[in-house]
Recover the amino acids of this structure.
């Protein structure tokens, strides 16, 4: 069982901020994230680019081209997918149609009861989910856990909705954000001891085979973890493409101080700086807990 630390719960307004991805070719990735998905390049410097849904919006994704980039080993921990959340179904339909028109390949389509999701990968194979939430009042619960499932998505209805929309493509919806991240880990108990006991996220579902889902404020999940590539998998090498880190945004400094103390006690704290506190989950996944974007 996870360690018996005193229970600590994050404030309800906690959310995912930005995700930094390591890639091989910045121009190639910008053609995908900019032209295909419709994110805006807010800043570009050297081998990095900062992307947002609108020019004055928060940074959602940072792309950094690394030297001698290699594919992420298939059976390694790290990123499963970054979940880009659209504000409503029409916005999801529009970006879906955009990708269909451009011939971009998809990896799957799911109705999770709490959301509708489309799965694909970027040019480096980094997993992405495009999704929209259903109203919270419609989310199913069972035994005090969110009852997410993986059912077929009505793709034809989603595409028909986009085709009936007369608006021309002008980029991704400006209210788009990062809804959650889903990670490969080496052990679920180790992951729970970190994401629940150190970070203070609640376990929202523990009945999905080989996975756990964590969140603040009753959300279905801000962080998902799984051992689907095998328990005790190794972390990828430093020059592999994938996630460098993600940020968890909290509304007050006291929560950050508590997380820093708990991370130090559990040997999960990497460093502290003006951006926040940096921690590692035991499987090589890095999170920065910060108070501001």
């Amino acid at each position: 069982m996870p360690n018996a630390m005193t229970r600590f719960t994050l404030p309800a307004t906690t959310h995912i901020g930005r995700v930094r991805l390591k890639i091989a070719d910045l121009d190639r990735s910008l053609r995908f994230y900019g032209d295909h998905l419709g994110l805006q390049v807010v800043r570009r410097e050297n081998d990095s680019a900062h992307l947002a849904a609108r020019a004055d919006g928060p940074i959602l994704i940072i792309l950094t081209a690394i030297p001698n980039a290699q594919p992420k080993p298939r059976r390694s921990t790290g990123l499963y997918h970054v979940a880009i959340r659209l504000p409503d179904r029409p916005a999801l339909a529009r970006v879906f149609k955009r990708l269909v028109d451009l011939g971009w390949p998809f990896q799957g389509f799911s109705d999770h009861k709490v959301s509708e999701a489309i799965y694909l990968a970027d040019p480096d194979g980094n997993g992405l989910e495009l999704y929209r939430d259903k109203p919270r009042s419609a989310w199913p619960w069972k035994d005090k856990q969110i009852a997410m499932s993986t059912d077929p998505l009505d793709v034809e209805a989603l595409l028909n909705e986009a085709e009936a929309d007369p608006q021309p493509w002008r980029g991704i919806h400006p209210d788009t954000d990062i809804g959650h991240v889903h990670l490969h880990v080496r052990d679920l108990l180790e992951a729970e001891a970190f994401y629940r006991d150190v970070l203070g996220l609640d376990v929202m579902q523990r009945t999905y085979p080989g996975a756990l889902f964590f969140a603040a404020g009753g959300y279905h999940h801000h962080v998902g973890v799984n051992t689907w590539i095998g328990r005790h998998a190794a972390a990828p090498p430093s020059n592999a493409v994938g996630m460098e880190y993600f940020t968890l945004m909290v509304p007050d400094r006291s929560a950050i101080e508590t997380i820093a103390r708990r991370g130090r006690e559990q040997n999960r704290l990497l460093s502290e700086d003006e951006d926040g506190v940096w921690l590692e989950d035991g499987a090589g996944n890095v999170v920065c807990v910060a108070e501001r974007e």
